[in-house]
Amino acid sequence: MRAIVEGVLAARDEVDRLGLDVLVGCNSTPVFDPAQDFWTGLGRLGGGEFRAALGYAGLDFDYTPKPAFERFRALIASR
Predict the structure, then answer these.
(1) Is residue 49 within 8 Å of 78, Cβ to Cβ?
(2) Of 46-50, 51-55, 62-66, the least confident
(3) 3-class secondary structure for the chain?
(4) How far is CA 5 from CA 29, 46, 50, 75, in A?
(5) Whole-angstrom Cα distance, residue 36 to residue 34?
(6) Nearest Cα to 1, choosing from 52, 59, 30, 44?
(7) Would you give the distance in Å from CA 43 to the centre of its chain?
(8) Model-level pTM greater than 0.85?
(9) Tell me, what's the pLDDT at 22?
(10) Would you give the end-to-end CA distance of the chain in angstroms?
């Protein structure tokens, strides 16, 4: 987590130094466990400076077709 916080802060500093209008953020796969600590842990670790620098938080989804989906797609294509 420290690398994400430090990377976002460094990127924000560089974007500001260059005078660019760019959002700085990070991505993760979705975590649906209410006990998760990833996003809240980032916020705690980075504090207000990190939250101010963070322009977006992206969610990555796995779009890799699964075997059941492939069978379903083949069934539809055969009709």
Answers:
(1) no
(2) 62-66
(3) CHHHHHHHHHHHHHHHHHCCCCCCEEEECCCCCCCCCHHHHHHHHHHHHHHHHCCEEEECCCCCCCHHHHHHHHHHHCC
(4) 17, 6, 6, 47
(5) 5
(6) 44
(7) 14
(8) no
(9) 94
(10) 49
Averaged pLDDT for residues 34-52: 90
Tokens linked to 59: 């969610």
Please tell me the distance from the alpha carbon of residue 55 to that of residue 61, in angstroms, as a whole number. 20
The mean predicted confidence, pLDDT, of the chain is: 86
pLDDT of residue 4: 96
Instruction: Identify the CA nearest to 26 among candidates 48, 2, 59.
Output: 59
Taking only the tens place, the pLDDT of each residue in 55-75 is 999 888 776 666 666 766 776
Torsion from C-alpha of 32, 37, 40, 45, nearest 10 degrees: -150
